[in-house]
Amino acid sequence: MAEVRITRGSQVESRHEVSYCVWRDGAVVRAAGDVETPHYYRSAAKPLQALTVVQSGAADRFRFSDEELAMVVGSHDGSPQHAATARSMLAKIGVSPDLLRCGGHRPLDREVYESYVRAGYAWGRTEDNCSGKHSGMIGAAMALDADPSRYAEPDHVVQQRNLAQVALFTDVPAAEIGIGVDGCAVPSFSVPLAAMAKAIARYTTPELVPEESQEAAARIRDVVAKHPEMVAGPRRFDTVIMRATNGKLLSKEGAEGVVTIGVADERTGIAIKIHDGGQRALNAFAAALLSELDLVPAAATARWYPRDILSREGDPVGRFEVVL
């Protein structure tokens, strides 16, 4: 089992166990831990879910901009830009933000959150990190002549199409895919890490998937490469590494310590799971692995790994250590 160790002085204070898989050219080429046990994708499934928005015809019918389509893939900061983008999508569709089933939460970015508090701004559904995905799903429901108020329910045509996308890209039969409910109220899919790595490798090298999906996958991959700020935010892992590699990588984190990373046109995908769900371990481990694989400049990931643990006075008192 790989792990992230947190040291203080000469002692290991905490450990985060990790499983990961690197899939390349049709096979697992590097792995640690159990890559065949299913784990929930959580928001790392958003690139696959975005395919339904394109293939349903919604992206073209409602003339979603490249930024709007990129945000369908996003777990964004909830910044004014992100919220305005969600409202723009909903206005094009012709529905109210009240239709969003994602709920609402404080913005993920601390600086955005603090700016809202200072301004006395009450955030809502469009500031929810999943508002882009949900706006896209509502658009897909409308394009498919299905009830948009039920778009989040597992038996709805939008969710059934999302399930089919996961099955197609992972090669896991739909009947064998675990289904739970995500924090934003839509179905969350569970497959092995090896299948996740395969799926993101195929997604970012569209020639590996059936012809009917190639155009949609390439389109989404390319708008995300152009607008990585819509996927997360300027201080968050996904956006930083996509910017640092000029869109060569497509990175998408999910809750509870999951990330999938594909390398454009190189038949390569990575899937990582931190078993205790720790976000601090996820970013450190992903940074170390990407650096070892020479996929991202070290300067881009230095804020996550290698990394000192500091006292409140700013003095180093410990370290993050990654064991691959």
Q: Which helices and strands appear, and what pairs or packs with what?
A:
Layout: E1 2-8, E2 11-24, E3 27-32, E4 38-40, H1 46-55, H2 58-61, H3 66-72, H4 80-93, H5 110-119, H6 131-143, H7 157-170, E5 178-181, E6 187-192, H8 193-204, H9 211-226, H10 237-244, E7 249-254, E8 258-263, E9 268-274, H11 279-292, H12 298-301, E10 308-310, E11 316-323
Antiparallel strand pairs: 1-2, 1-11, 2-3, 2-9, 4-6, 5-6, 7-8, 8-9, 10-11
Helix pairs in contact: 1-6, 1-7, 1-9, 3-6, 3-9, 4-6, 7-8
Question: How would you describe the overall organization of this protein?
Answer:
The chain is α+β, with helices and mostly antiparallel strands and 324 residues long. It has helices at residues 46-55, 58-61, 66-72, 80-93, 110-119, 131-143, 157-170, 193-204, 211-226, 237-244, 279-292, 298-301; strands at 2-8, 11-24, 27-32, 38-40, 178-181, 187-192, 249-254, 258-263, 268-274, 308-310, 316-323. Strands 1, 2, 3, 7, 8, 9, 10 and 11 form an 8-stranded antiparallel β-sheet that branches. A 3-stranded antiparallel β-sheet has the order 4-6-5. A hairpin with a 5-residue loop joins strand 10 (308-310) and strand 11 (316-323). 52% of the residues are buried. The model has no long low-confidence stretch (mean pLDDT 96).
